Amino acid sequence: MAVQGSQRRLLGSLNSTPTAIPQLGLAANQTGARCLEVSISDGLFLSLGLVSLVENALVVATIAKNRNLHSPMYCFICCLALSDLLVSGSNVLETAVILLLEAGALVARAAVLQQLDNVIDVITCSSMLSSLCFLGAIAVDRYISIFYALRYHSIVTLPRARRAVAAIWVASVVFSTLFIAYYDHVAVLLCLVVFFLAMLVLMAVLYVHMLARACQHAQGIARLHKRQRPVHQGFGLKGAVTLTILLGIFFLCWGPFFLHLTLIVLCPEHPTCGCIFKNFNLFLALIICNAIIDPLIYAFHSQELRRTLKEVLTRSW
Questions:
Q1: Where would I find the G-protein coupled receptors family 1 profile domain in this sequence (predicted)?
Q2: Which helix (H) or strand (E) holds 254?
């Protein structure tokens, strides 16, 4: 909708590359150089979006159903699922409209389509920004629960969590609206890149500090049992692997999209950057994959949530 050909994805105004060829292979850019290009079909986008939509809707419904999960931590997890749900829902909506237009089953004026595209873009942008914010909020919540355990319930209260959630949603909508309106301004793109880097640094610092504290705690327990070396090394290795997976998935799924924004600022006409621009749809697909992975990392590890989810699924049948 925003651009022509197979690059018709939300936020397509950021990508001015030519239409992609429909397979993984080498494609020529504007200067004749050969580029590795991955084409993401509408069917794949639709499938990823539907999987994420159902998965995150189940998380939201499960947390809403069980009052035992109405705590600040699960409030942030629920909002993360809602953000991912909106990312997926907007993707499903746009892909469905595209397929209907191509099949001739839907006829609409260009002005109407443009307005619809703008609305979907704002929903997508705001949900992406809020998703990043809630990932950071979850990291902060876990950090406080570990380093200020005795004061946690007085620091992180449900009213404060709700105010934080409201502030995140309002800020996300406002900034996403500005982003769509002024997407061609360098300052806007730089703000988005700085925001992503700030979230990445925040999460890395907090989780690394939490891992260090957990290793110290495990080492203290090991000393009491005269088994310092094996327990400490085993726990540290497991924690390092978990941390690497958590931050690695975050960077792998979000990094390429913000690299795309960075290169638009640094080298919009360079042939090598043009090759990267051709994979814009792939970068958006990775963000949707992150929306599928988030519930597995942050929600489904909870035994209480899994038990409630089973009840929801059982009653629905």
A1: 55-298
A2: helix 228-266
Please, are residues 222 and 228 in contact by the beta-carbon 8 Å criterion? yes
Asked whether 188 and 179 are in contact (CB, 8 A), the reply is yes
Inside any domain, residue 298 = yes
Q: Is residue 53 part of a domain?
A: yes
Q: What is the DSSP string of 155-209?
A: HS-HHHHHHHHHHHHHHHHHHHHHHHHTTT-HHHHHHHHHHHHHHHHHHHHHHHH
Cβ within 8 Å of residue 98, ≥6 positions away: 1, 8, 42
Which amino acid is residue 82, in one-letter code?
L
Q: 65 lies in a domain?
A: yes
Token pair of 21 as six digits: 């060829």
CA 61 from chain centre, in angstroms, equals 20
Measured distance CA(274)–CA(297) in Å, rounded: 34
- Looking at the domain assignment, is residue 163 inside a domain? yes
Instruction: Give bridge partners of residue 25 from the DSSP assignment.
Output: 37
CATH number at residue 114: 1.20.1070.10
The two tokens of residue 241 are 């692997």
Q: Residue 85 is encoded by which pair of tokens?
A: 């749900």
Residue range(s) defining the domain that contains residue 143: 40-222+235-316
The number of folded domains in the chain is 1
Tens-digit pLDDT string for the chain (317 aa): 443 333 444 333 334 333 333 333 444 454 455 777 788 888 888 899 999 999 999 999 999 988 888 999 999 999 999 999 999 998 888 888 888 887 777 777 778 888 888 888 889 899 999 999 999 999 999 999 888 988 999 999 999 999 999 999 999 999 998 888 887 788 888 998 999 999 999 999 998 888 888 777 767 766 776 654 554 555 556 666 777 788 889 999 999 999 998 988 888 888 888 888 888 888 989 999 999 999 998 888 888 888 888 888 887 65
